[in-house]
Amino acid sequence: AQSVTQLDSQVPVFEEAPVELRCNYSSSVSVYLFWYVQYPNQGLQLLLKYLSGSTLVKGINGFEAEFNKSQTSFHLRKPSVHISDTAEYFCAVYNQGAQKLVFGQGTRLTINP
Amino acid sequence: DTGVSQNPRHKITKRGQNVTFRCDPISEHNRLYWYRQTLGQGPEFLTYFQNEAQLEKSRLLSDRFSAERPKGSFSTLEIQRTEQGDSAMYLCASSLQGGNTGELFFGEGSRLTVL
Question: What is the tens place of the pLDDT at every residue in B100-111?
Fold first, then answer.
């Protein structure tokens, strides 16, 4: 069975500071990895995805993530955050056998001015 | 905009009542998923359809829950005899089976409050 662990439930940072949201997954087969963002009272929006190829993936809003197979991690980073990045961020894993996305419990990113 | 549409967006009901949520996926998407999200948690898989066939149901989906996708287009999720523990955001998502990369497109969700 697959699982996703987001190591921090809340991350407070100051505006324009860098941020890293951590994600580890477990799976015995090849996986596809995703980060979604959820703004208050809204659905989930795709930030970026890793399917294959380069392990550094760039997404929307200046976010990027690095796939590390040996550490089974897919950490999300942004070099300089803005107030508008305040949201809940979810890491998710998909494999073709399970045919569904499994989500982590989420990380709440709070940006302080 | 031809994204995933869900309604109602909010539903407040009394314990014991039945509720139904509707999801209209992106038109060319043949897969449709339902997830449940409680406060402070990530979305949890409930069930999914490929066209009109319901291919998998989670153990979270008790006998009081039923989902349908009668013509392979829109889907409904009905909860009978609601309980306070059913209070949650119900998310619908759709995807293309042919692509099979796992990328799901989500609707805005239907928030259920059971009093």
Answer: 577 899 999 999
